[in-house]
Amino acid sequence: MIPWRRVGARRRPRRPVTSGDVYGMIAHMAAPAVPRDLVARLVRDLKRRGVDYADVRYEHLLHESLLVEQGRVSSVSLHESAGIGIRVLLNGSWGFASTPHLIPAHLKRAVTQAIGLAKASASVNKRPRPLASVEPAHGVHRSRWTIDPFEVPLSKKLDYLLWANTSLLGPEAVTQATSHMDFYKRRKLFCSTEAAQVEQLLIESGAGLEVVARHGNEVQSRSFPNSHNGALAQAGFEYVKQLDLVGGAKTAQTEVLQLLRAHPPRPGQTTVILDPTQVVMQLHESCGHPTELDRALGQELSYAGGSFLQPECLGTLRYGSPAVTIVADATIPGGVGSFAVDDEGVPAQRVELVRKGVFVGYLSSRESAARLGLAASGGAMRAEGWDVPPIIRMTNVNLEPGEATLSQLLHGVRRGYLLSTNKSWSIDDKRMNFQFTTEIGWEIEDGKLGAIVKNPLYTGITPKFWGRCTGVGRREDWRLWGIPNCAKGEPMQLMHVGHGASYARFDGVQVAPAR
Amino acid sequence: MIGYSRLLTALSKLVKQARADDVSVCAQASTRRVFRFAHEAIHQDLAQESINVTVKVIANHRVGIGSADTLEPESLRRCVRAALEIAKHSPPSSDLPPLPRGHRIRSTAEYVAATARVSPASCVADLKRLFQMCRGVGAQLAGSIIVGEDELAVVNSSATACYASSTIAGAKLVTMYRKLSGFASGVHRDIAQLSLDGLLKRSLSQSLHRLEPVTLPLGTYEVILEPEAVAELMEWLGSIAFGAKSVEKRTSFLAGQMGEQLMDRQVTILDHGNQPGSLRLPFDFEGTPKQKVILIDRGKAAGIVYDSLYGQRFGRASTGHAVSPDDVEGPMPLHLAMVPGRSAAAQMVRACRRGLLIPRFHYVNGLLNPRTALMTGLTREGTFLIEDGKLVAPVATMRFTQSITEAFSRVAAVSKERRLVADPNTGLGCALTPTVHLKRFHFTGRSES
Predict the structure, then answer these.
(1) Residue A281 sits in the same domain as residue A236
(2) How far does A279 lie from chain B, in Å, by closest CA?
(3) Contact A175 B249 (CB under 8 A)
(4) Chain A residues lying within 8 Å of B304, measured CB to CB
(5) Which of A209, A226, A260 is the last residue before a domain boundary?
(6) CATH value at residue A105
(7) pLDDT per residue over B186-241, tens digit each?
(8) Which among B48, B46, B162 is positioned nearest to B105, based on CA atoms?
(9) Which CATH architecture has domain B4-207?
(10) Are strands B374-379 and B398-403 parallel, antiparallel or unpaired?
(11) Axis-axis angle for helices A154-168, A245-260 (nearest 10)
(12) What pTM did the predictor assign?
């Protein structure tokens, strides 16, 4: 998972040409009708061919990406993708085939391929592959938005990005200023041989900026409102407006210049308060991934790895302190991991993963749930697009809020650090030993925030770290973020996953300067 | 497989349709069959067919980009219209380079029909044999087998028309025996050259031990990095330092350092898209023929890679390292290689008094401080402690935090043998790397089981 890196030559900004409503036109022309009859015919055909189970998923995606660097427009692109994925279960084996060509010859070939692959695998697979039962879902779902971002004129978006971008420029030390927006409109139709039929229309909007500054050999960066394109929500253009990029740009510029002259943290064990932007990454790597049941069952061993959260630990392993409750919630409005049904037709749910510090649940699928003897799937099967099969993914993995204000979390901390905005991340293949750096930190002395520190690094062992969580921030400071590039599977699928968090305090954390 | 004629005809039509000053269209098409397996069962069996067409138009110095995952004419017309509309409503740019002119390349040398023809039944038969071999020694097997075809085509309004087709076959095999795991991966254009049995033996050689993993004190060790481990570090160097964008941004450790001795004299790193033994690709996403670029020459900073935009900004010609037009990463080296040394890989262990043999790393991250190439990552399967020239014990997972320029400035030896490392799931990117013996490598953490 490598985030974008952007740069451009230093230039003064130009005003864009005022446009008409180009995107209204594009959004309209790039939204072909959902092929309901075609999909229904495919499902009937699969039934006739005697499969044990099959589902057919049509997806149409529109992705608009805008990038401004150094006060000028660097890239504007619109991407359209549409096709059908067919998943077949036959004699205890899966087969999956896909095609972008929605014409009979290609669809027939895809059906034959999927069945052929399942048959080929069946000569190896000796055990049956039962699926946890699910009531066939029906209906039409539309995510919530106020302003369709594809109907917002391009000039308005670029004006705003240029304004935010030029707010980052000025000081000689600033070597790079980047601002971006991304919008996604995804239509999905899911039908299965169990008579499920669900249509979904999901819109996501995101934006952010980054400033890089240099003094001698020292290079520092600051992002707003989150790094790695992490401000993404299932919402319309109103979400981008709420982010206040221009206001954030001034803060980012001030802080990046301060970082150039800041000291690194002192190495040693200390108290750390993570702000919500960094709790997001901590949740993602040390809770989200190890609670994926396919990892725990060994199905990701050749790529992403396994998990220390083995099935025998369920309900007994102490994952964290009693302050720690973590849920996977696909029902929460605004989360990029929210939906009506997952990509095997299971309704969205709120699943407890960690309850008051005890590991109590997995992210699961119909197959993995049945294998573990769970009553039902947790509804976490998602595919990046029509051309790949669904695999177990995070939905919105959230740390439930506590009651403390930031002042209350700071109170009583004699020495420590407040750390914000992820810079680098790494964790072992069982998701135990992690190490993160953040863009910025602040010293804490006697309960008060002090000087800025640069290059803070902290490391730990997952259950020990969460076991030393001595406080979680209140709901008022809790915020939902979206990560657009969670990598998993072969072929690699990049998934949009959500994480909600407030501040969280941890004692006895190993901190060091990254050098 | 779409084929030369059909693909270039479709792209040429698009170039004509787009009424603009300049038009460049590129298409990437691929098929993949991916078998994933664990514990005596195939849990994913996939056939994938995909295409991406990207249209870049330039009209009155304004750029618009549209892309679509289809060759269907009406969708492509929409894509062109979208690109034109974006250009019409975008601000003008004054430093647009001209499109690469008059390059005509047709390459099918990397396409092996036997790989393209391989049947699911044949892959499953191979897999059954591997399962049987593992059962025979009491080991478990997990992993993936991947076969596929790739096509890349670029056509522009300046008489460039390039096409390349290729095949790929690869495997990743994890073997588990008692408390140990082993790993081996391989990739080749020709499935007959993949040698699944050889890969399995390599993986088993790391896992078939009755020894318990030892936990070592943290600190600095000599390390012998096998090709997969070296490749991961080099790919990160490529990502953070060898492209012109990171140099312009001055986050690259090469910025302002050209000609300086940054690494040991035994280290020469280059990017060479036409190098025999690698996954050759003769041109980039702009249709520019790929040039061989020396990045580190006997330890000295020697070069970076350019596309046409960054070439113009730096006053250089493109080196043929453009990525897709809708990608914002800037030019990237996708065919990295380290020049081989004189040592035999087997001799390196014998020459090591106390150190670690590391076949591959896990979850390396190079963003800690790109100016010093400070990276972190972990050991994974097959890491062994070496004492007095012998492998004495498997080692539990350890974390390194290390400047790679510093590590590569203390090289004991570079092997004469090299291995090709690539992810067969993607059609792009590979590294041809030797085994490297480093005198000092800093370990800062360890995992727990």
Answers:
(1) no
(2) 18
(3) yes
(4) none
(5) A260
(6) 3.30.2290.10
(7) 999 999 999 999 999 999 999 999 899 999 999 999 999 999 999 999 999 999 99
(8) B162
(9) 2-Layer Sandwich (3.30)
(10) antiparallel
(11) 30
(12) 0.94
